[in-house]
């Protein structure tokens, strides 16, 4: 399990696998090399425990490629990171080729939780199985950002986090993107901030505000660490 997201109303948890499951023809026979472009999203009703599963088609596999994050837009749309493990900043510098943020929609996708047959390694999917819809939202290697170049602004190897910040004064949505440095102190953790203008999107995000926790998560006196005052 690589990504978790909660619906804005707090009622539903979504989990996303980084790559295909072993039972879904994930590996080439007799090897540890990946061969499947199909992974899964699980939807869990937190009140009843009921689940549904959906197929997500990856762009590519191997070379560390796969899904590394899922973030809720509303109860059926999400942002998803697909990335490679290439970077000019890594121990063995290589040009990055894939650092995508997709907008996906589970509306109309087939619930495959009752299926016993494995998913195929490649398209087409079995008759009657529709994957989630996906479209490019942000290409982090877009030349205008300058993150693809071999310089001080080079993008990190592992882009692995997404979060919504508070809306900006002009009404734009604030999206944070963060890297994982694998606990290597020599590798900087990168945080990027994008202002998302709904009025310029073909389809507005219809971003639903999350439910906020009321009061502290721990009773006073039981906090283990406090930052600031």
How are the SSEs placed, and which strands pair?
Elements: E1 3-6, E2 12-16, E3 38-45, E4 51-57, E5 66-72, E6 77-83, E7 99-105, E8 133-139, E9 159-165, E10 173-179, E11 191-196
Antiparallel strand pairs: 1-2, 2-3, 3-4, 5-6, 6-7, 7-8, 9-10, 10-11
Tell me roughly what share of residues is in helical segments: under 10%
Q: What is the overall number of helices?
A: 0
- How far from one another are the termini? 35 Å
Q: Tell how many strands the DSSP assignment holds.
A: 11
Describe the structure.
The chain has strands at 3-6, 12-16, 38-45, 51-57, 66-72, 77-83, 99-105, 133-139, 159-165, 173-179, 191-196. It is mostly beta strands and 229 residues long. The strands form three sheets. Strands 1-2-3-4 form a four-stranded antiparallel beta sheet, with no helix packed on it. It has a four-stranded antiparallel beta sheet with strand order 5-6-7-8, with no helix packed on it. A three-stranded antiparallel beta sheet has the order 9-10-11, with no helix packed on it. The two termini are 35 Å apart. Helix content is 0%, strand content 31%. The chain contains no helices and eleven strands. The chain has one domain.
């Amino acid at each position: 399990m690589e990504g978790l997201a909660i619906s804005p109303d707090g009622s539903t948890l979504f989990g996303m696998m980084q790559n295909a499951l072993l039972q879904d023809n994930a590996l080439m026979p007799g090897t540890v090399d990946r061969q499947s472009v199909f992974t899964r999203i699980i939807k869990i009703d937190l009140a009843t425990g009921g689940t549904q599963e959906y197929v997500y088609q990856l762009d590519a596999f191997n070379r560390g490629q796969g899904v590394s994050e899922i973030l809720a837009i509303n109860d059926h749309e999400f942002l998803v990171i697909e990335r490679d493990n290439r970077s000019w900043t890594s121990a063995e510098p290589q040009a990055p080729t894939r650092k995508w943020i997709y907008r996906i929609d589970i509306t109309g996708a087939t619930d495959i939780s009752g299926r016993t047959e494995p998913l195929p390694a490649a398209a087409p999917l079995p008759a009657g199985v529709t994957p989630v819809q996906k479209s490019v939202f942000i290409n982090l290697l877009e030349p205008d950002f300058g993150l693809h170049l071999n310089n001080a602004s080079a993008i990190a190897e592992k882009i692995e986090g997404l979060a919504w910040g508070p809306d900006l004064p002009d009404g734009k949505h604030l999206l944070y993107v963060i890297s994982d440095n694998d606990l290597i102190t020599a590798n900087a953790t990168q945080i990027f901030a994008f202002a998302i203008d709904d009025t310029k999107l073909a389809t507005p995000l219809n971003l639903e505000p999350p439910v906020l926790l009321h009061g502290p998560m721990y009773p006073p006196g039981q906090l283990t660490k406090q930052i600031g005052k």
